[in-house]
Structure formats: C-alpha cells, structure tokens
Amino acid sequence: MSPLLLLSFALQIACCVHVVRTGRPLYWVFILLVFSFIAVIVYFIAEILPDLRHNPSARRTVRNVRNRIDPERDRRDAAKLLKAADTPENRRRLAEESLRSGDYTHAAELYEQALKGLYATDPDLMLGLAKAQFGMGDAHKARDTLDALITANPGFRSADGHLLYARAVEDTADAAAAIHEYEAVVQGYPGEEARARFGLLLKRHGDQARARAVFQEILDRSDAAPRYYRREQQDWIAVAKRELATLQD
Asked: Is residue 17 part of a domain?
C-alpha cells in the first residue's frame, strides 16, 4: 500500500473517531469513508476549525507556533497600535509584549509612563513594572513596587504576583521573610513552580528534611494529576526529581 493511501486511511479513521467522540452527526462517517481526502478537508473546515477558533487551549497552541515562527510579530503589532493611538491600553499592550520578549528595560519604561493620572496605582500596571524590574535584576525595586501595589490596592490578588514577591524577597537576602512568603503562596498557586522554588530555598538554607518533603509533595501531586497537568509542569517535576535524588544520597 502506498504511503499516500496509508495517510488517507489514517486521516479518515481519525476523523471518524472524532465524529463519534464529539457527537457529530453519523452521516459524516459515511462521507469520510467514501470521499477520502476531500471529505477530510471538508470535515476539518466545517467541524474542527470552528472549535479550534473558540478553544482557549487550541488558540494558545496556535499562538505558540506562530510565536516560534515570528516571535516579534505581536510586539510589532502592539508598536504600530501605540504609534497610531497613544492610549493607556496600547501602551500597556506594548509593555506586555516587551516583557514577554525579554526586553525588560523597554517594558519598565512603558509601564512607568503608563502609571500616571487615573492609572497611577493600577495594580496590573504596577505588577507589570515589578516583573520588568525583577527581569532587569533589580529585586529591591521589584519588592518596593509590589509593596506599593499592595498598599494602594489591598484587595488585589494575583498568584503570579505573590510568587514574584516571594522571589524578590528571596533575592534581597531576606531568607526568613522569603520562607514566610513561600509558605503562603504555595497554598493556592496553580502549578508546581512555587513549590519547586520553595524547596530549592529550603535546601540552600540547610533545611534538608523540609526540602525533601516539599519535593516529594510535587511528585505525589503530579502522580495524581491528569496527563495534561504533568505535561505542563514537566520542568518543575524534573527539578523535584533531581533535587530529591540529591537529598536522598
């Protein structure tokens, strides 16, 4: 059997399985089996593509692929929007894209420019500025910005912001305060990064037993988690496995 026929057969079967699993009309099975490649293309356009457009995970995958091909596209688009209309929203968008691309200096400048007037204490802008400052290697400034954020917005909650604060406190050589912050942030952080960083901090400061318990908790949680979670957290799970092995030597 030729490779082309094998590919056609595989795509037809995959689409038929999709029809059954997603509850599509069963006449699609007949169409797919009879009309081969043409039916697969029509089915993809009619049934699968609309779902991809409205699926957050699919959109994120498409965005990641696009960013690998052209990592500066979103940043260029944001710069064009800001040039056309210098609004707080456009400035925030360009700041976020600069932050994402690793241009922390430019991101910090944009956030500082945006933090004026009605937006002088905007929590999202202040958090973005703290991220940029931390990315630039200035943990003290990042900590000060986050302290100011909480003072101005006592009701603001952000898991990423809390983790950033713990890291900033850690990098300012305040180990006791950092441990306290990590103890709080790991309670509700949606992922294993906070636990992994907490374990690393405990290990560096000689609390081997507690570090071992934190790393073991990561592995226990990941073993009980769905496959997609283990895939998303694989880097931090790998850290836990590596560090746990060294602690058990």
From this structure: no
Task: Break the chain down into helix, strand, coil percent, rounded to 5.
Answer: 80, 0, 20
159-178: average pLDDT? 95
Does 83 map to a domain? no
Q: Pick 36 or 209 by higher pLDDT.
A: 209
Amino acid letter, 91: R
Radius of gyration of the chain (CA): 24
What is the model's pLDDT at position 69?
62
Q: Among candidates 183, 222, 221, which has minimal Cα distance to 202?
A: 183
Residues spanned by the domain of 33: 24-51
| 122 SS3 class | coil
Domain assignment of residue 201, yes or no: yes
Alpha carbons 116 and 81: distance in angstroms, whole number: 20
Q: Residue 245 sits in a domain of what CATH number?
A: 1.25.40.10
Q: Tell me how far apart the alpha carbons of residues 84 and 108 are, in angstroms, rounded to a whole number.
A: 21
The total number of structural domains that make up the chain: 2
**Predicted pLDDT of residue 126:** 97
